[in-house]
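To assess whether ligand presence alters the predicted conformation, the chain was also submitted together with S-adenosylmethionine. Input:
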Amino acid sequence: MTPLDYEFLRKLLKERSGLDLSSDKQYLVESRLIPLARRAGLPGIAELVAKIKGGSDALTAEVVEAMTTNETFFFRDKIPFDHLRETVLPALLKARASRRSLRIWSAASATGQEPYSIAMCLKQMGAVLTGWRVEIVATDLSQSVLEKAKAGIFSQFEVQRGLPIQMLVKHFTQVGELWHLNADIRSMVQHRQLNLLQDFSHLGTFDVIFCRNVLIYFDQDTKVGIFERLSRMIEPDGVLVLGAAESVVGISDAFKPYAERRGLYRVNTERAARAGVSASMPQVLKLVGAR
Ligand SMILES: C[S@@+](CC[C@H](N)C(=O)[O-])C[C@H]1O[C@@H](n2cnc3c(N)ncnc32)[C@H](O)[C@@H]1O
């Protein structure tokens, strides 16, 4: 790949998906895009770039998708889901007792393991949620991962990663070598395509937002902007959950970490109040123990 073609692709990916590639990732781009070029009947990256420059929107979208990293698994990192089950959901059940509704967003949901893990946690709560309106919204930039997520069909390898055996037996049906997620869990999740670089305020506000293992691919300014916009989409007593390698600390003061709850953040209501966003912010979740 020529340096000029690499620069063109780097800029395109940054603009379209936020992917911030350093100057030495030619091998990564080649390993993902040479197979794509071949499938499109093109000899190599130079011809792929020429076709994109010629205005092929479909090919551009395919390039952006091919460069996304969709690695995920059920109950990834375990601890955030333990917090969800043991402290966050019980606290929200109390706080929302009169309105009896909960909204949870998985903001880079990949092939669905994350939103379905959330759905299984909610299912475990049992009868206490009877009569509640519970929404789990799963969004991703990539249409192909969303299609796989919607189908809810996973390989033996996929269900072996992170999913406790009791949950596999309870919520999946084996069909040949594949595992089909049962309809009651599948129907708890709504899937939509959404690019985090674009406006997402139309989704409304959420009690919990999982935004995990996607911000690591973005540069500092992009992260700051997304934290800012996420902070306007989350209830003042809601929870933001980030990935194990991600943090707001040193990047944005829109959120504050929950003490002793690694990976969990709350809206910085003090900052919002100073900015005059709300005169009467509700108390943050007591059970989670805000710092
Ligand atoms: C590594 S996966 C993380 C999946 C899941 N959240 C987890 O932690 O297991 C990252 C996902 O972010 C998606 N993604 C990348 N850029 C995005 C963007 N600009 N907007 C929305 N999703 C994006 C990718 O398509 C991919 O499915």
